[in-house]
Amino acid sequence: MTPAPRLRVLAAMSGGVDSAVAAARAAEAGHDVTGVHLALSANPQSFRTGARGCCTIEDSRDARRAADVIGIPFYIWDMAERFRAEVVDDFVAEYRAGRTPNPCLRCNEKIKFAALLDKALALGFDAVCTGHYATIVTGPDGRRELHRASDQTKDQSYVLGVLDERQLAHALFPLGDTLTTKDEIRAEAERRGLAVAAKPDSHDICFIADGDTRGFLANRLGAAEGDILDEDGNRVGSHDGATGFTIGQRKGLRIGRPAPDGRPRYVLDISPVNNTVTVGPAEALEIAELTAIRPRWCGTPPTGPGAYTAQLRAHGEEVPVTAEAEGDELRVRFERPVRGVAPGQAVVLYDGTRVVGSGTIAATTRARAGTAG
């Protein structure tokens, strides 16, 4: 058997346990590994202690200590301005437009596998290594394919669905093809002498210091009182800023009177133009199809309509769909209605465990009476 080639690998080290173990495994596999921590905040003291996403001084120190233990060179690269422009400003702009973005996908697309990868390749590195749980498989045609992690309970392929063929050719995910639990990853880190073994995970948005997304948006977009309407346009309550709501939201609506049938109501639509939020019953959330824009393909784009499964959230279920790419749009029809689909979210298509590609949801068609959302 021909041994795997020795690569020059740049390991993105966030300061957490996953990226530290990934870097250690890459080094143990015989690659020439250099660790790098991305400084993504111009004022890291303002970001939450222990946050995932390279956001605190503590994280940078943890990453440096891990690199020292592994025995690899280590650097800190300042990408705060790029991160602010590509991720934070985009996040605010999407909410201003009434959409619900996913900043983790945006960061993977624009920072870790664009800005970071481009710089790595310019410096002579062969690949970028991260602690994501996903698998890269070489297909029958010799091309690299992105697949779900072996342990699908930890799978993170959804947030990597924005990677294109070129980026996959230079990606390395050492954690994705092993059936290990998170406790076992922590135990491995401890065996390797990595102090981050017991460091807690964070699943919040890394650049929102206190986890208060509504307050974060109000500070940047302002808070203006508006109406909460039912499906017939009747005023049923008020709010202090439409940008603080998401499609499918039930709690925190401050509706003055109950629905005539006594059932709970959910956010169906957000209109930043007239600062209104429309609410209605759960069944009105059911979506029959959607249109996504800016499709990105993890390999050769599909031709013609095809049967796939689709995932609409990072930890959401797979649902069977028929999908077809038409120029710069992706049309997806669900075999059964799904709920809580919001413009701005990503739809990721799968063929078995293989990630086919993704798109940003631009419009939806409701199952009930075929109304658009």
TrEMBL record:
EC code: 2.8.1.13
Indicate the segments forming the tRNA-specific 2-thiouridylase MnmA-like C-terminal domain, all copies: 289-361
Q: Where are the transmembrane segments?
A: none
> Where in the sequence is the active site?
C107, C206
Task: Using the record's annotation, list all stretches that form the tRNA-specific 2-thiouridylase MnmA-like central domain.
Answer: 215-280
Q: From its record, what is one biological process in GO terms? A: tRNA wobble position uridine thiolation
Residues annotated for ATP binding in this entry: A12, M13, S14, G15, G16, V17, D18, S19, L38, G131
- Name the chain's protein: tRNA-specific 2-thiouridylase MnmA
- Organism of this sequence: Streptomyces alkaliphilus
